[in-house]
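Data deposition worksheet. Section B asks for the primary sequence of the deposited chain exactly as it was used as input, without tags or linkers unless they were present during the calculation. Section C holds the resulting structure in token form. Section D is free text for depositor observations; keep each observation to a single sentence. Incomplete worksheets are returned to the depositor.
Section A, Depositor: J.P.
Section B:
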Amino acid sequence: MKKDYLLFDLDGTLTDPKEGITKSVRHALHSFGIEVENIDELCCFIGPPLKDSFMEYYGFTESDAQKAVEIFREYFSSQGIFENKVYEGTRESLEALVKSGKKLYVASSKPEVFVRMILEHFELDSYFEFMGGADFEEIRVKKADVIGYVLDTCEIRDISKAVMIGDRKHDILGAKEFGMESVGALYGYGSREELTKAGADFLVESIFDLQNLF
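Section C:
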């Protein structure tokens, strides 16, 4: 696959945010009187826009879902943000891709300020030309919105030279809105069935596989 511009999802693709996200979701649910003992039950929140997930998985109204997101961020911004770990091979693979001449970008549904804080904390920011994410005003939330924002900001016009890499269907479907090819990361939180059904053009078992793919 000959691509010059590689767009990466963050959660479940570059880092494993399970502990921080699930604990933040549990904190938010607790405020609504919902108790969750096993945080593994909340892994479905990793990747998609949070408000959508509260509505889909717990039947929240849009108003309550928005309140839940705000409460989620109380815990996440003070503690959960760094309850996170870099996947084995991430740093080495990013370095190899940059050395081969690829330009790397981040397109995440997480608020951009958090995206930057996480990548800077783990010293991964230097590999990326631009780190894009959602905004707090709820204007740029969906994955397609973020992808479009990154493409426009970085003036990437030739979509045939770009690819989206992510672990959930939202990454794949977002790429399709731009006619962009996509790679599904099977080591993240989306199943093979989910990524295949969404129409991922390629699947990788580990981040190391990206070096061979590109």
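Section D:
The chain has a mean pLDDT of 95.
The beta strands are 5-8, 15-16, 85-86, 103-111, 128-134, 162-166, 181-185, 202-204.
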